[in-house]
Structures are given as structure tokens and as C-alpha cells.
Amino acid sequence: MPGDAEVADVTAEPLPGCRVVADRVSKVLDVTTLLPAISLVAEPASCVVVRGPNGSGKTTLLRLVAGLLAPTTGTVTIDDDPADERRRSTRENVAALIGPPAAYRDLTLADHLTLVDATWGRDSHTCVERVALALDTFGLGAMGERFPHELSSGQGQLFRLALTWFRPARLLILDEPEQRLDTDRRAAVGDLVRARCDTGTTVLMACHDPSLTASVADEVVDVGGPG
Amino acid sequence: MNAADQRAEDKARLEDITHVLHGPHGTGAVQRVLYAVYLLAMLAFTYGFTVARALFITSDPGWLHDRLLGPGAAVVSVLLAVALTALVHGVGRRRGPVVPPLPWVDHVVAGPLDRATTLREWWLVSATLLVAGATVVAGVLGGGLWASGTTGPTSLVVALAAGPALGVVVAGAWLAGQVGAGESGADPVPTTGRRRGWGPRALSPSAALRRLGLTALRAQSIRSTRLGGAVLAGDLRAARLEAATPVRRGRELRLRSHGRLLTVVARDLLGLRRQPGLLLSGALLAAPGAAGVAWSLSDTEVPVALAVVAVAALYLGVGVWAEGLRLLGDTLGTPRLSGLGLETEAGAHTVLPASLFVLVSLPFAVAVRALVPGSAVGFASLLLWVVGVGALVLAAQWVAAFRGRPPFLAFLPEVGPMVMTLWFARSLVLSAVVGGLLTARAAHLGMLGPSGATLLATVALCWWWGRSTLRSAANEHRV
Question: Among A59, A85, A89, A104, which would you mutate to test the B interface (most chain B Cβ atoms within 10 Å of its Cβ)?
């Protein structure tokens, strides 16, 4: 993976981050409590790591902040606007890796990034260079012509991270980005998260890896007891 | 130990295994198949025959008689049989006739017993069902033609001979497809000691069963389970991913950025270039579909059923080309990666199937109109009507792509399968029945005036429904 400066310059848009406020937000389905009431604040250019045991509600919290779920109680706001992916502002501001994003089975990795690049209206003349650099950044430079089903599980996770990173966003939400990655890749992802924060982006992530948490977190929030 | 002794010992050991797993009565698969065939025959005789007879009577028996006894019918029949055989061969590569449960594959097929012996039951079940089904369907059609007075009793005799024969051929192609998929890139199986694919042994089911590899059998077993679960749950994305062959060709082609909307169109075009089979199969459905619509409009003696079948073929053909639209539907509920609005992106994904519809369908419609002498239908009005029907089937693609979750009733054991089937087929049925009936009506009453207005209103209504399904499908996950 190349240096952080290249990552910041090309794969991430230099957009100011959002201020995220979750105020006593909870989620209950029927009689099942998916997330007990919790509050957090994530400031621009900072990384908040959510920790907790399996089933404690980390992913639910991330989905609430991404606007993919409606809270049962409390509110989630992104720069004072309600987090709701039906709102244009939420979709424009939030890039999220929560579960595998839907990939096209008939597009290669490079094609996927090209499509994302084009739909955000970036300069088509420099698209090839941006795509190549993004693939290099995530260690996938030699795999641009592979289809998603031809990747190992770790490479697949890197590809999903690359896709999420590649679209412009002011808030980056990552659900256990360390999944399936070896120690070196985890450290590299940590560097990328820090570099992204340094460009101003707000990062909210769930993480089970103490080393990664220590390397990226400006603040740690425990869900459902100490992680 | 000679071969006969070996076979006898294998058979005895298999009986022991079956006894341990299923008790003294065995798996019961043969009894279940016989019962299924019995039910199929009863239903076909009770309902199928009656419906077929009524359909032929209402479809102008004289018109049908002339066409069925002409040389064209024989050519079309042979072509359909060849196409069906090729299609089933392709299906066999993803889901063949021999798909035992995974534990059987891992613990029995993987053992030292003769593979043909351990797999024979599954092959016989599939082949018997296929041959019996083909016989019943052919008998219903042949009997219906005879009973409706369309043809003489010969049609029943021919059907009862051709049906099972076609069933046997198709079953063999199905098994050959499964064997071929498992052997792609693999070394020849050393059991026969002869060159593969040649000589009488190549036609032997036992020889084919011995060529099925463990890895391929496991993959098909797992896929079959997942596919069944996806269909029962109404999860079309999972069903498509399990059923579709992984794309591997055309990796040297690159998607280029052409701006926000054109890149989406280019994406769909690239998808078809990497899967030229989709392009071809879509054309093979849409072209005769458009020809059928044009024929119905040009000749008032054409049965209504032909117009309905023609619009159904158009729907299916355009649907094959609308892969991008369905893939967009698959992404609903996941965090957005694309910078386009949903409706805008859906519109961009509609451009390619619409363009292909115009390129493929309209020339065939014009050609058919030119071949019908004395037709009072003008070329311009005919083309306008075909375009209108195209708009209808495209709108129905939106309804299909963004159908969301199945209704609650689809998960009730009493009515679930029926509701799920209707839910899967609603956009096809809507476009085929409404489009077909309007086309047949327009052939008699003219395309302008009330018929044209009704088609326009139907198209508008269907597009409104498609947009509504998109919005509701995009929001329904946010509970």
C-alpha cells in the first residue's frame, strides 16, 4: 500500500467532516431490544470506535447513524439533519460499509470503481488514474481485471473497503473493517483511517481489534458493557 | 473379484447403508415419484385436457388445422425441441438431474462404492419425472387437438410417441450438461479406459454417472439447497446469484467513464458483451414476440392466444436484456455507493433494453407485416402499436425489478406456494394478458381511437406502478 498522502489526495474527497449526534437512541423490534439507549457525539476529523460483545447492538447503532434504520427512541442527527437515507443530504454525506455492498457480478474491480467515480460526476479524463491508485492503495493493484467472485475472503474485504472509500463522503461508517484481514492489512487499514480523519472526514467504526482501536480511536464508546 | 461380484457387493452394501439411514422401507423415493406421476396424470386428465380442448376450440380450429399440418409446423417443432434440449443442457451445468443431499455426497458417494450405484436413484427419479411429465403434456396437447376437432386421432398417437422420446433426449442432455460442467478443465476420468464422448458408452447413464466428480456434486448440492431456500423466501437476488453462471469472459474490456448517466448505460452494455448468451437469448425471445404482435395486428384470423404468448415472449426477451435494472433492485436497502438518485439510475438502466427492443423488434414487426398480403394495417400505426407494447413490457420490468419482499401470505403453508408463484409472475402475467388482449382487440377494432387510448392508459398506469414499487422497495427495509 502506498503512503497516506496519496490516499488523502486521490481516493478521498477533501470534504469537511460532519458532526454526528446520537441522543439516547435505541432500537426495539417487537419485544427484542437490539440496542439499549445510548448517546454519542462524533466531531469532524475524528474517529469514534464502538466496542462491545457480539449481539450488543454495535451494527444496529451504525445502521441508525447511517439512516438505514429508524430509531425506536431518541434521535440521530448529522449536522443537525435527521439521519435518514431517504434524505438526499444523508446519502450524499454518508459512505458506509455495513455488511457487503451489492457488487455487480459482471463487472471487474476496476469497472466497479469506474462506475462509482462516474456517478459522482468526477472528471472522466482522469478516472483511470484515480481507479488505479485506489486499487493500489488497498493492495489490489494487480487484480483490477478480476471479478468479485474471483477474490479470496480477505481480498474481498479490501475490495469492499476500496468501494466505500472511493465515493465522496463527509462521514465514513465502517462495521468491523478488520474482518478477514491479516495483521499487516489491519495495520494498513488503521493508517488509512487516520489519513482519512486528517483530511477532515468523520469516521465512526465498530471494531473488535484492540490494536486497531488503539491506533485510530479519538474516542471509544462501549455498547452493552465493556468490550 | 470380477465385475459382476463387485456390482453385487456394492449393491448389498448400498442396501445396508439405506437401511441404516431410512429403515427397512428404504428412501421411498420410487414410491414418491410414482405418486407424483399419478397425481400429474390425474390433474392433466381432469383439468389440463379440458383447458387445452377449450383453448383450441376458442382459437379457431380451422386456422390451427391449416398451420399445424403445414411444413412450417414441423420445422418449428424441431427447432423448439433443439432449443429446449440446448437450454436444459445449459441448466444442467448449474443444476443437473443428479443432486443428492450433501451428507449422502460426503459420506456415501465419497466412499469406495461404484459411483453409478450410489447415484442411480437420484438419476432415475429426475429422469422418470421428466419423461413422465413430457408424456403427460404431449398427451394433453395431442388429446386436446383431437377432442377439439382441430386434428384427427393421429395427433394423440404422434404426441404420445414424441413426448416421451423428447423427454428421454432432454433428460440425457440434462445429465450431459452436469457431467460437462464437472469436467471443465479437469482430467478425463480413468474408469472407462476409452476416449471420452465417443462410442455407445458415451450414451450410457451409468458411464455418465461415474464421470460426476465429488467437488461438482457437492457444489450442485449446496447450490440446490440455497436456490430452493431463496425461491421459498422470495429472495430473487440470492436465487439469481445461485442460478447464474459466474462471469469470466471479457475481462480485458474496460468500463470507461462517459459522464454520470452514459457510464451506467455503458455498464449495462459491457455486461451484455461479457455475457453474449444473454444478448442472443433476449433476441431469440423478443424477435418472435414482436413478429407475433405484428402478425396478430395484420391478420384478424390469428387466435387471441398467439398475441398473449407473443407479448409474454417480448416481456421475457426484454427482461433478459434488463440485467442492470434487476441488479439495481438488488442493491436497495444497502448503503448507496452510486451518486445518482434511484429513479435516475433506474431510468439509465432502462436505456439499453429499450434501445435493443427498438433495434431487434421493429424490423421483425415490419417484415411480418410485409409478408401478410392484403392487410389493412398501415406500417406507421403498426410500429406505433409495437412501440406501445414495448413501453408496457419495459414498465413491467420496473415492477419486476423492484418488487421488494413477498407478501405475508406467501409464507403460510396452506397458500404459500400459490401466492409466491403469483408474486413472482405478476408482472409477466400483467403485461402478457393485458398487452395481448389489447393487441387482439386492436386487430379487429383498429389501433386508433379507444384501443390506442386504452393502451396508452395501461402503459401510463404500469409506469406509475413501476415507480411506486421502486419507492416502496427502497423504503421498506427502513423499519
Answer: A104
Name the grid cell of B329: 433492485
How many Å apart are CA B193 and CA B196, to the nearest integer? 9
For chain A, percent of residues with pLDDT exceeding 90: 84
The alpha carbon of residue A114 is apart from the nearest alpha carbon of chain B, in Å, by 6
DSSP states of B13-57: HHHHHHHHHH-TT---HHHHHHHHHHHHHHHIIIIIHHHHHHHHH
- Say whether B367 sits in a helix, a strand or coil: helix
The 10s digit of each residue's pLDDT in B7-31 is 888 888 888 888 888 888 888 888 8
Contact B256 A124 (CB under 8 A): yes
Measured distance CA(B304)–CA(B55) in Å, rounded: 10
How many Cβ atoms are within 10 Å of B70's Cβ, its own excluded? 11
Give whole-number Cα distances, A33 to A41, B72, B382, B387, B402, in Å: 22, 67, 61, 53, 30
* Interface residue of B320, B336, B349, B475 to substitute, partner A, most A CBs within 10 Å: B336
Closest Cα in chain B to A66: B335
The one-character DSSP state at A15 is P
Contact residues on chain B for A101, CB-CB shorter than 8 A = 331, 334-335, 337
Question: Tell me, what's the ipTM?
Answer: 0.87
Minimum-distance CB partner of A111 among B255, B331, B341: B255
Nearest to A68 among B237, B274, B478 (CB): B478
Q: pLDDT grade, residue A192 (50/70/90)?
A: very high
Give the Cα separation of A177 and A98 in Å (integer).
Answer: 9
Q: Determine what percent of chain A falls in helix, strand and coil, rounding each to the nearest 5.
A: 40, 25, 35
Q: In terms of pLDDT, which residue wins out, B59 or A148?
A: A148
Average pLDDT of chain A? 90
CA distance B345 to B329: 11
Q: What contacts A162, CB < 8 A, 6 or more positions away?
A: A11, A109, A113, A134, A135, A137, A138, A140
Option in B244, B248, B479 nearest A70 (CB): B479
Residues 196-225 of A with CB under 8 A from B: none
Measured CA to CA in angstroms, residue A165 lies from A39, A77, A83, A116, A147 at distances of 26, 22, 20, 11, 19
Q: Residue A13: its pLDDT value, please?
A: 57
Least confident piece of the model among A146-150, A155-159, B171-175, B468-472: B468-472
pLDDT tens, B255-313?
A: 999 999 999 999 999 999 999 999 999 999 999 999 999 999 998 888 888 999 999 99
Reduced to 3 states, what is the DSSP secondary structure of residue B478?
Answer: coil
CB–CB of B338 and A119 under 8 A?
yes
Residue B238, helix vs strand vs coil: helix
Separation CA B226–CA B239 (nearest Å): 8
- Which is nearest to B105 in space by CA: B205, B220, B226? B220
Burial of A193 (0-12, 13-18, 19+ CB in 10 A): buried
pLDDT over 70, % of chain B: 95
**Which of B244, B246, B264 is the closest to A119 by Cβ?**
B264
The nearest CA of chain A is from the CA of B214 a distance in Å of 21
> B340 to each of A116, A118, B336, how far by Cα in Å?
9, 10, 9
C-beta pairs of B4-8 under 8 Å, 24+ apart in sequence: B6/B114, B7/B114, B7/B117
Q: What is the pLDDT of residue B414?
A: 77
Integer angstrom CA distances of residue A44 from A16, A29, A33, A39, A176: 7, 32, 30, 17, 20
